[in-house]
Amino acid sequence: MITLEDVYKASEALKGVALKTDVLYAPKLRKGAELYLKTENLQVTGSFKLRGAYYKMTRLTEKEKACGVIACSAGNHAQGVALAAKKNGIKSVICLPDGAPISKVEATKSYGAEVCMVKGVYDDAYKRALELRDERGYTFIHPFDDDDVIAGQGTIALEIVEQLPDVEAVIVPVGGGGLISGIAYAMKQLKPNVKVYGVEAQGAPSMKLSVQHGVVEELSAVATIADGIAVKKPGRLTYEYCQKYVDGIVTVTDDEISAAILALMEQHKLVTEGAGAVSVAAAMFGKIDVANKKTVCLLSGGNIDVTILSRVINRGLLMSGRSCQLTIELPDKPGQLRDVVQVLAELGGNVTSVRHERSNEGTDVNGCYLRIVLETRNYEHIAQIRNALRAHGFKLM
Question: What residues act catalytically?
Answer without folding.
Answer: 49, 300
